Amino acid sequence: MVSLHRTIRNIRRVGLREWWRQMQYIGDAKSGVLVGTDQFGNRYFENMNGEEEIPGRQRWVDYAQHEYHASQVPPEWHSWIHHIRKDPPTHDPVVKNLTPPWQTPWVENLTGTRGAFKTYNTVAPKINAWEPKTISRGA
């Protein structure tokens, strides 16, 4: 829902360079308040002005990597983006005290990349392929 007035307003707020980057990555011009940053370098924004943003689309993420996908968003930020939690993880005391010491750090899903998990077999095969044995003819 891009109008000329909204586009010009957002160019003035975020600057021409950031506006062009947003148009290339998310396909929309948005301006809002930086709420926080996660361990991957992703930046999270919010604009609660009802006249500027469509309800339900006032929170968004600016990915740090060029090749981005949804598994690069940690669970605590995912719950904030999808309006499951009201406060962002940087301000929510429950989320700050929720992480147990034994929990491993969040990593993105590596399926389809070189870092993906691949199984290998350590057992001898039960069925062996046929290998023809040839004997040379005597002359």
From TrEMBL:
It is a peripheral membrane protein. It is found in: Mitochondrion inner membrane. InterPro entries: NDUFA12 (IPR007763). It comes from the Eukaryota. Keywords: Electron transport, Membrane, Mitochondrion, Mitochondrion inner membrane, Respiratory chain, Transport. GO terms for biological process: response to oxidative stress. Its main location: mitochondrion. GO terms for cellular component: mitochondrial inner membrane; respiratory chain complex I. Belongs to the complex I NDUFA12 subunit family. Accessory subunit of the mitochondrial membrane respiratory chain NADH dehydrogenase (Complex I), that is believed not to be involved in catalysis. Complex I functions in the transfer of electrons from NADH to the respiratory chain. The immediate electron acceptor for the enzyme is believed to be ubiquinone. This is NADH dehydrogenase [ubiquinone] 1 alpha subcomplex subunit. It comes from Lentinula raphanica.
